Amino acid sequence: MRQWLYALLLCTLSAAAWSAPADEEAVRAAFQAYKTAVLDRQGVNAADRVTSGTLDAYQRYRELALNGDRATLQALPITDRLQVLIIRHRVPTGQLHAMNGRAVFIYAVDRGWIGRESVVRTSIGEVSVDGDTATAGMRMGQAETPMNFEFQRQQGQWRFDLMPVIRMSESVFAQMAEQHRISENQLVMNLVGAVSGQPVDDSIWDAPAK
Question: CB 177: neighbour CB atoms within 10 A?
Fold first, then answer.
């Protein structure tokens, strides 16, 4: 009996030792696949590489872009306000009605709206795997940063969680508003106008006519 338990323990330890580096490489491959899809504007491929939580967030952005009133939107975190208003401003309302969150994400990647400028200089450093979740150090160029990327294993595949990356910008945007002595809402409007190249006025906070 002892010999059987010992053999089982050895097999378990050997499997764990083998799976750790395999998972680390799979996480690196998942990030590279996502990065390539974003840079090549391959929305479907990018959507296949992100977590279900990421696509759920875009479903929520889509619903808010169509139905969120001024008070609702202005109570959101800055990063959510920005994402919702970009969608509201840049996706025709008729098309948006026909989309789900995955389709909105694909539409955005296909048009280069998601992360092209930042991801081109980004790579991952040390990878840490814990069951079906993983973190990886974020590098900008050759420099290490104090921030991490997050991944989840879903349906047997490692997928990139974009939402923590979006949240990283929250404090940066708050500081920008303070430095420029403008409200967060005005900053959001300025950013939407800058990324779209089209003028934005205060009516953007109001839900489109149904």
Answer: 18
**What Å distances lie between residue 7 and 18, 19, 102, 131, 158, CA to CA?**
16, 18, 47, 23, 30
Place of tokens 């990421």: 54
Residue 129 lies in a domain: yes
Q: Cα–Cα distances in Å, from 162 out to 51, 183, 186?
A: 8, 26, 25
Structural domain span for residue 141: 22-205
Distance CA 69, CA 78 (A): 16
Number of domains present in the structure of the chain: 1
Strands lying side by side in the sheet with 143-154 = 122-130, 133-140, 143-154, 157-161
**How far apart (Å, rounded) are the C-alpha atoms in residues 179 and 181?**
5
pLDDT tens per residue across span 128-181: 999 999 999 999 888 888 989 999 999 999 999 999 988 888 988 999 999 999
Q: Please give the Cα distance from 37 to 47 (Å, whole number).
A: 9
90-127 pLDDT tens trace: 999 999 999 999 999 999 999 998 877 667 888 999 99
User: Considering the entire predicted model, what is its pTM?
Assistant: 0.87
